[in-house]
Design a protein that fits this description.
By secondary structure, this protein is mainly alpha-helical. It has three helices and no strands. Helix 2 packs antiparallel against helix 3. The model has no long low-confidence stretch (mean pLDDT 84).
Amino acid sequence: MLRHPILYIPSQQGLLFNVRVFWVWASNALLHSVLLFWLPMLLASHHVLWPNARDGGYLVMGNFVYTVSRTNVIVISSIHVL
């Protein structure tokens, strides 16, 4: 820190992280949480019936939630990379 004090000026002045940035991140996280919960719940509300007359059950729901969560992480990280 004593060697390159210019690097710490933006964070000391609150340019990179402040109250507004915090609330934007918090609302973004809340929106994604709501979508990641309700999207699988609404799409799986109609029971999946396989040709062998068994329903999807909790294992299909778990795989679906995992797939949606994983897709969300990949899309968000690809947006930040661009």
